[in-house]
Amino acid sequence: MVESEEVCFEVAEKVKSVCDELDIHYVFKSSYKKANRTKLDSFTGIGDKKALSILKAVRERYGVSVLTDVHSVEEVRLAAD
């Protein structure tokens, strides 16, 4: 799950470096929101727009494909943008 830009950038940079060395196509995957929690008051994320903007920044900065998951039809447009 997206927790901060710093963590996402660190992971993307390190994994992309290894994938580049091995000539492997890298897809960065992280959930922008954790919707399936067992407790209603559990942490679900840093906010949809903020998390999605971090995923966009990862894509732009590292030139990688980015994958996330959506949990309802209403979320599709937000995540696609």
Query: Could you report the average pLDDT, rounded to the nearest whole number?
Result: 90
Structural class: mainly alpha
Sum up the overall morphology in one term. Answer: elongated
Helix content range of the residues, please?
40-55%
The fraction of residues in strands falls at: 5-15%
Stretches where pLDDT falls below 50 for ≥5 residues? none
N to C succession of SSEs: HEHEH
Put simply, the count of helices is 3
Q: How does this structure look, described?
A:
There is one protein chain. This protein is mostly helical and 81 residues long. It has helices at residues 5-22, 48-62, 73-80; strands at 27-29, 65-67. A two-stranded parallel ribbon has the order 1-2. α2 links the parallel β1 and β2 (65-67). It is elongated and about 45 Å long. The two termini are 18 Å apart.
Outline of the structure:
The two termini are 18 Å apart. With 81 residues, this protein is mainly α. The protein is built from three helices and two strands, in the order αβαβα.
